[in-house]
Amino acid sequence: MYRTHTCGELNLKSAGTEVTLCGWVQKTRALGGMTFVDLRDRYGITQLVFNNDTDVALCDKANKLGREFVIQVKGKVTERTSKNLNIPTGEIEITVSELNILSESEVPPFIIEDNTDGNEELRLKYRYLDIRRPQLRDRLIMRAHIVSAVHQYLDARNFIEVETPLLIKSTPEGARDFLVPSRLVHGSFYALPQSPQILKQLLMIAGMDRYYQVVRCLRDEDFRGDRQPEFSQIDCEMSYVHQEDIFETFGGMIQHIFKQVKNYELKEIPKIKYDDAMRYYGSDKPDLRFDCKIVELNGLLPASEFNVFNNAIANGGIVAGLNAKGCATYSRKQLDELGEFVKAPHRGIGGLVNIRFNEDGTVKSSADKFFNEEQLRQIGKAFDAQKGDLLLIAADKTSKVRRSLGDLRLELAKRNNWADPNAWSVLWIVDFPLFEKDEETGDITFAHHPFCSPHLDDMQYFDTDPTRVRAQTYDMVMNGNEILSGSIRIHQKDIQEKVFDKLGISAEDRDKKFGFLLNAFRYGAPPHGGCAFGLDRLAMLLAGGETIRDVIAFPKTSGGRDLMMDAPTPVDPKQLAELGIGLK
Amino acid sequence: MYRTHTCGELNLKSAGTEVTLCGWVQKTRALGGMTFVDLRDRYGITQLVFNNDTDVALCDKANKLGREFVIQVKGKVTERTSKNLNIPTGEIEITVSELNILSESEVPPFIIEDNTDGNEELRLKYRYLDIRRPQLRDRLIMRAHIVSAVHQYLDARNFIEVETPLLIKSTPEGARDFLVPSRLVHGSFYALPQSPQILKQLLMIAGMDRYYQVVRCLRDEDFRGDRQPEFSQIDCEMSYVHQEDIFETFGGMIQHIFKQVKNYELKEIPKIKYDDAMRYYGSDKPDLRFDCKIVELNGLLPASEFNVFNNAIANGGIVAGLNAKGCATYSRKQLDELGEFVKAPHRGIGGLVNIRFNEDGTVKSSADKFFNEEQLRQIGKAFDAQKGDLLLIAADKTSKVRRSLGDLRLELAKRNNWADPNAWSVLWIVDFPLFEKDEETGDITFAHHPFCSPHLDDMQYFDTDPTRVRAQTYDMVMNGNEILSGSIRIHQKDIQEKVFDKLGISAEDRDKKFGFLLNAFRYGAPPHGGCAFGLDRLAMLLAGGETIRDVIAFPKTSGGRDLMMDAPTPVDPKQLAELGIGLK
Fold this sequence. Notes:
The structure is a homodimer. Chain A is about 30% helix and about 25% strand. Chain A has helices at about 55-65, 120-125, 125-130, 135-155, 195-205, 245-260, 275-280, 305-315, 330-345, 375-380, 400-415, 495-505, 505-520, 535-545, 575-580; strands spanning about 20-30, 35-40, 45-50, 70-80, 90-105, 160, 180, 190, 210-220, 230-240, 270-275, 295, 320-325, 355, 365, 390-395, 425-430, 435, 445, 475-480, 480-490, 530-535, 580-584. In chain A, helix 4 packs across helix 6 (about 245-260), helix 4 packs across helix 14 (about 535-545) and helix 9 crosses helix 11. The mean pLDDT of chain A is about 95.
C-alpha cells in the first residue's frame, strides 16, 4: 500500500505515530511561515502542516501544490492547537517530513466542493470529478450500503440470487424494447429486458422457491420526468406464499435497510386499501408524513341553490374538500393560485370554493351568496375546522375531484412545510382493482400485468362486474413515492385463461407474447408471488437526493445521452454490414 | 405460507408433530395397501405415506397423482420402519391426513432426475424443468453462495459496489461490440459493455478508492469452445496499491470463498513467474494438482549424430521432455497416439522420441540408433527416471516445444488420472511480458491491454528490448483454468504516452478510443490496479460442472440462441422504422 492510513481515521489516539497518507489536495494556505494542506480521500479530510523553519524546500514544494494534485506524505500525527471539532480528524494534523507528488492536476472545470459552481451538464461531462464531491460520493456509498443490506437480509432467508439473461426475446408488451441486432442470424434481434418478470416466474416453476436479483432493466421510453433508459430493481419472488408472507418478508427488509443504513427504527408498516387511499388522499401513493384527509360532503351539505355542488351530486359525482390548517389568512392571490392549480388540464376541475375560519371568529366563504354563516359552520364541522383554518372544496366527477384534491394536498404541504424532513412515511397499498375500464372506450385493461392473481373471493363478480374484482396486487409507498410493486401471480391455468379472455387477448397473441411461460404452466406451477423495489428511487429517498441521477454513478441526460462517454454515436459502416442492417 | 416446513428439514426430532408440506411429486408407489409418495422441493425430499385401511378415498387420490404434480399435504411426522440414512429426512415419513392438488402436470418431456434421458437441446428448451434436477439446482445455488461470499468479503473491506451503465459507447477495440440502435438519435448506436475496464478506472480517478461489481459483460464473438455471448465478472479495482496488495486482498477472497462454499481451507497461494510457468509447464495456466515438469536437455545431452536434436539446438531451439511416471508399458499404439497428438497443426512439432525404463531394468528408446543404453541412462538422470518410467522428448523451436509438451502433460494426466478430483491447485501467475511480438509480422502488440503498467525497473529496456519489459499483470489459475486476470494500471501520463507510441497508436486513435479516460488522467489520477474474476468459470470449477452452461440459469447455445424463449427473432418492421434502421 502507498499509505498506512486513510484520510478519515486518524485522531488524538494516534498522536505521535509516524504515518503515510495519500489523497487529493483540497486546498492549501500559507500562514506566517506555515503551509497547511487539506488532504482528501473517500474517507475524510486530514490537515497536513509544513513548517518553513524546519524545511524550506519541503514547504516550498507544498506551496506549489495545485488543487486536486494527488500526493503521498509521510509525517507525524500531532495534536492541533486550533481544533475543528466538526470533523472526526479535526483534533490532529500531520507534521509532514516527506512529500511525493503522485499525479499533477490541471485546474478542474468546476469547484470540487458540495457548493460547486459547475452546472449539471458540465458535471455530467466530468462525472469522475463530480463524484469527488462529498455529497455525490456519499450518496453512491449509501446506495451500495442499501444493496449490501439487501444481500445480508435475503441471503439469510434462503433467497438465491440468480442472474437472468440480458439478451432475451422481444415481446411487444408494455413499454418499448431496446433491440440488439444478431450478427449470426441476420434479420433477427434480441431485446434487452424491461424486467425479469417472466423469467422469475419460470424460476418458481423451476422450483427455486426463493429468488432475488439486483438487476438492470431497460426501457426505450420517452424521457418524461425523472427517468433513465436503464434503471435497477431489487427483483424478488417466492413460492408457496400468500400476500401476508410478502408483506412480512419485504416489510422486514425495508426495516432492516433503515436500521443498517440510517440506524432508524422503522415501525410496523400500515396497510391502506387502494379504495381508501383514493378516497382519503386522492392518490395511490399518499404521503402520510402529514395528515389532511379529503372529506366527502355528499349527504352532509345544507340544502342550497348552489348548483356547482347540486349538479355534481346529481350527476353521480362528489363534493369534497381539504382542511388547510392555519391557512385562513391566505391572500386573494394565494387562493387564486390554488384555484389555477386545480384547473390545470390534467386535473381539470372548475375551481375551488373556500371557507375561511378567521382568527376573529368570523367565517367567510367564496360561496357566501349560497350559504349563511351557520351553514358554513355546519360544513366546517365535517372538517373539524378551527379558528385559522381554510377549507378548500371541489365538486365534479369523483375521480377528478379526488385526483385534484390529492395533488392540492401535496401542494399545500409543500407551501406550508407540513412534511417533517426527518420523518418517514412507509405504507403498503393493497387491494388494487384487477382491471381498469378505459374512460373513453369502455374497454377493460389490466391494471398491473396480466399475471396478477384476482382475490379468489371476488371471482363471483368476474363476469358481471369485473372492475369490482380486486387483485392480489400491492405497492409499497415511501414519502409519497412508489418504491415497490408486486402481486401474487396466477398459477392456475383456468384462471389465467379467464383473465386473457376478459382482456380480449387472442389465443395467437397469448402464444406469441407469453408462449414459453404458458407452456411452463403445463408442468406443475407452484403458487407464487413477489415484488420489485425500484432501487434508484429507494436510494434517492434514503440518501436525500433530488433526482435518481443523484444516486447513479454514470447517468444519462433526459435525452438519453451519456455526456462523459459521448454515447450514443455513429459506428463504422462495416459494423452495420456485419449485422445485416443499414440506416434508413 | 402454504406450508409449515420445507421438504428438507424434518427429522426424528419432529416425530409426532402435525406439519403441512408443499412440493412436487417425484414418484409414487403402491405397496400392499399403502401408497408412498416422494415429495420434492429445493430443500430435499420427504416421504409421504397414505394408508388404504385408514382412508380409502385419500389413498385413491394419492394413487392418481402424476409425476411433477404440485401438492400440499397435512399430516403427522412419523418414524419410518425402513429408514434411508442417505438423506437427512430418511428416518421419518409423513402420515398424510389431507391432500390438496395445487397444480397438475402433463408428463414432462424428460425424466427429472440427475440421470435424465433428455438431451441437452431438449433440456435447454425446457430449462425450467431441467433446473428441477438436483444437480443443476445445486450448482445454481452454489453459484449464488459464491456471490454471497464475495459480497460479505468485499463489503467488510470498504469496497463499494457501483453499478456501471450497460448502454455505453462503442470502441473498436478488442472483441466485437453488441450494438443497440438509438431511437432518439437515428444513425447512432450504444454498445453493450465488453467489460467495465475504463469505467472502473474512472471510478478510481473519481476517488471511490475501492470498487467492485458483479457485472454482466457482453462480447459478440464467434462461439468457440465454452463461450457465452453474455458472461459475468466479479470486477474489482483499488487505489494506492501495489501488486502485493492485490495478491493479499484477492488471494484472501478466494480463500474465503473456499471456506464459505466448500468448507475447504485453501493454503497460501503460490506465485509463479510467467517465464517459469512456460518453461516448466508449457502454459501460462498450469494445473499443479500433479507434478511432471518439462525438463530442458540443452547442454545435458550426450554427443550424438541425432540431427533432430542437434539441429533444434543449432537453430536456437530446445530439446526437452516429460517423465511420464509409470508409463513405460505404454503400447506401440499408445505411443503413436501421443506422437499424433503433438503433431496436430496447432502444436506442429515433428514427433516424440521415447525412452522406456522398463521394470526388468532395461532401457529402450525410439532413438536407439543414436544413443546407447548408457547414454540413455545419462539422459534419464535429468528426469530422475526410475524403473517403469517413460520419457517423451521433443526438439524444435522453444515456443513450439513448450506448447506441445504443455498440452502433452495435460493429456498424460487425463489418461492416467493424475489429478486428484478432490485436490485444488490455485496459483498466481506473475510477471507477464508487457508486449508481445507478432511471430509473423514482427509488430509489437500489447499482451493484455494498453493500460497495464510496466515494471518500472524494466523501463531501461523499453526502447532497446521492449519484449523484455515485464508488466505488472497477473492471473489467478485454478486447476489449469484462468479464473482472474488483472494488472496495476498506468496512472502516469508520460508512461501511457510511451506505451501508445510503442504500440503505434496514433494520437487521433487514442483520442477516439480512449479520449474520455485520457482526459480524466489530466485531473489527478491515483495509482491503482485491480482484477476481474470470471464468475461463470469459477462457479463451474467449484460446483463441478463440465461447461459454464452448467452454472448459468438460462444459457445460450453455441449459436447464440436461447432455445427456451426462442431468441433472437425477427421483429415488427414498425420497430425497425422507429429506430431508423432497415434490413440489408
